[in-house]
Amino acid sequence: MGTLRDLQYALQEKIEELRQRDALIDELELELDQKDELIQKLQNELDKYRSVIRPATQQAHQQTTTTLQGEHRTKRQAISAEPTAFDIQDLSHVTLPFYPKSPQ
């Protein structure tokens, strides 16, 4: 069996080990609290987005259902990427190259 001095030293080591573990537990609890707060904040934001998106998607779904039940949609006009305001006289001096090709 150890001497009194050895036992006191071992006790001091165990006390120090317990202090370190308590400090680690405190750090981990703080980190857990921060993560819980972040989760709650993100959950609140998600709820806000869902409250906006659900009515919008329900409205779009109702419009689609109504359209499919017999109402005719108006035809959309085409979009052209060609310029509409150009002067044909500006292009009169341009000659396009000719490349002969075989029938094959």
TrEMBL record:
<feature type="domain" description="cGMP-dependent protein kinase N-terminal coiled-coil">
    <location>
        <begin position="16"/>
        <end position="50"/>
    </location>
</feature>
<feature type="compositionally biased region" description="Low complexity">
    <location>
        <begin position="57"/>
        <end position="69"/>
    </location>
</feature>
<protein>
    <recommendedName>
        <fullName>cGMP-dependent protein kinase N-terminal coiled-coil domain-containing protein</fullName>
    </recommendedName>
</protein>
<dbReference type="InterPro" id="IPR031831">
    <property type="entry name" value="PKcGMP_CC"/>
</dbReference>
<feature type="region of interest" description="Disordered">
    <location>
        <begin position="57"/>
        <end position="78"/>
    </location>
</feature>
<dbReference type="Pfam" id="PF16808">
    <property type="entry name" value="PKcGMP_CC"/>
</dbReference>
